[in-house]
Design a protein that fits this description.
The chain is built from 24 helices and 8 strands. The strands form 3 sheets. The chain has a 4-stranded mixed beta sheet with strand order 6-5-7-8. Strands 1-2 form a two-stranded antiparallel ribbon. The protein has 477 residues and is α+β, with helices and mostly antiparallel strands. Helix 2 (25-45) crosses helix 4 (79-91) and helix 4 (79-91) packs antiparallel against helix 11 (212-232). It is globular and about 70 Å long. 51% of the residues lie in helices and 7% in strands. Strand 1 (67-68) and strand 2 form a beta hairpin. The longest helix is centred in the N-terminal third of the chain and has 21 residues, at 25-45.
Length: 477
Amino acid sequence: MSSISDITAQAIRFIEQTTYADLPEEALAIGRRCMVDTVGLYLAGSQESSVRILIEDALAQGGRGDAPLPGAGTKKVPAAIAGRVWGTSGHAHDWDDTQVSHDPAHVYGLLTHPSVPPLTAALIVASELGNVDGRDIMLAFQVGFEVECKISEWMKPRHYRRGHHTSGTVGTFGAAAAAAKLLGLKGAQLAHTLGLAASFAAGIRVNFGTMTKPLHVGRACENGITAALLAARGFEADPAALDGTWGFFSVMGEGFDEEKAKQGFASPLTIVSPGVSIKPYPSGILTHQSMDAMLKLVLDHDLKPEQIDRIRFFAGKNIIEPIRYPIARNHLQAKFSMPALLAMIALCRRASHHEFEDAFVAGEAMQDLQARTEVINDLEIDAQGYDKIRSRIEVATKDGRTLVQWADERYRGGPSNPINDTDLDAKFLMCAEGVISDNGQAELLRLVRGIDKGADIKRLMALISCDGAAAGGLAAE
């Protein structure tokens, strides 16, 4: 494979040569939106029990005070360990953005959650370095985002189908590229960074619906930062670890699409085209169209939970296989359970992270309505292909009606139907609710929206970490 490809060398040139001035305004604008989304998720995720365990573990390990932890006050820990916590926090609710592809071979869900790894690596390394300009953070983020997305786009879909979790595997390269860019690594050191990242990349889908799924992204951040830091110290790896013999593509992905790879990085930047989807719900992207369809059905008919006899959900394998829990017993399983998600919408007429609580999911109302929800593999939907997320819902009411709603393929949050800035800000504030004060929320939102326009990065990090004085003391107490 190394004789017909130079993807590793392409990646090195792209990371080395790209400057802030090379980034088009559209990429910068989308990047700021992705950062607003991700920073809100750091705050919401910091309150999750899985993340609190990681925070306790990080503080117990001690070490250099390189970077703070989300929602944990003023204490600092070594950079790579901080990356593990921040990355897990950003993916804890499965609410972070999703890479878009127009390739029918890439069944939805086969790509990656692109923002958390490079943003985490950039913020953590910036915290360690100190005095980093926000434009450099934006540049590192954009470089990591592009490397991660192109690897994911070019790799054969078999990677995900075999059970690898792309956000854990490919996310490692996004974090490594961002960290390396901010550290100023070039040439051989960059090659060694990617080589180390290739060996560190891991994450398997059996852990979907458990605490370990978001830890895949946390480890991607930790490992990407570690790869760059080790390479900076002189640690070596194979210089063609992406496309070389027994490299990442051949071992983990059973090859790559050679025609796509010929287009190269930034032709165009993936963040611009085909773009990125910002999630309206804290569950797998494959579920959102159907959840919106259920919400429309409920609102259009003013359907009350007590009026529902049965729900029948029709979809193809691209939804049914990964969204695999027939009945969710806890909030983590609910993110991958169509009966749970449809029941949640029917009961609450919304699905925010406040509804994804174990007590509610395991409660009598949710368990009863899930048991009356049937998931059906529709062969006609399968036959239409997997380039779009297609489904329909049929609700049988107790008074004998059958209400039908097809999902809108032009899904909310995607590039063709994006969440507007007002709704994005509302999502951010919902995530920050109860974590930092109202004043802290407003200030942090302003800082992130202006991150590459002279924002005080030290202040930004203090707010996310919930320094008692900076954040109003809510989470730090």
